[in-house]
């Protein structure tokens, strides 16, 4: 039985030593990964820029044409008098009779009569 106890003690000692070794190797591995990452970052060389990479992508800019100065008509006075003499024309809005029946009479007089009407008195509850 003493050999069984020795085996259990040695296996327990190995388990404890493995857990300690694992935790210390994790710290060492973290440093190793960090150092490897920093080394790769320092060694990275970005690709050289391509010359004339913008050709075909960027459009060339050109100024818009200069606007023309508006010219006044030769006979401005006669055109203004013709405009003043002309009667304004209004487009006739289509009347929907069903809408007018549903809404009822409208206008300023109807609105004023509505405002002047007495409100119904609330009935007292007994």
UniProtKB/TrEMBL annotation:
<dbReference type="InterPro" id="IPR019711">
    <property type="entry name" value="ATP_synth_F0_suH"/>
</dbReference>
<dbReference type="Pfam" id="PF10775">
    <property type="entry name" value="ATP_sub_h"/>
</dbReference>
<protein>
    <recommendedName>
        <fullName>ATP synthase subunit H, mitochondrial</fullName>
    </recommendedName>
</protein>
<dbReference type="GO" id="GO:0046933">
    <property type="term" value="F:proton-transporting ATP synthase activity, rotational mechanism"/>
</dbReference>
């Amino acid at each position: 039985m003493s050999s069984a106890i020795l085996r259990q003690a040695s296996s327990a000692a190995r388990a404890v030593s493995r857990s300690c070794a694992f935790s210390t190797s994790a710290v060492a591995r973290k440093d190793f990964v960090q150092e490897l990452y920093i080394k790769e970052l320092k060694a990275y060389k970005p690709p050289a820029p391509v010359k004339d990479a913008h050709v075909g992508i960027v459009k060339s800019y050109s100024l818009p044409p200069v606007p023309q100065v508006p010219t006044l008509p030769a006979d401005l006075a006669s055109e203004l008098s013709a405009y003043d003499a002309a009667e304004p024309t209004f487009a006739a809005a289509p009347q929907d009779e069903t809408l007018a029946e549903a809404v009822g009479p409208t206008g300023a007089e109807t609105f004023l009569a509505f405002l002047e009407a007495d409100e119904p008195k609330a009935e007292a509850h007994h």
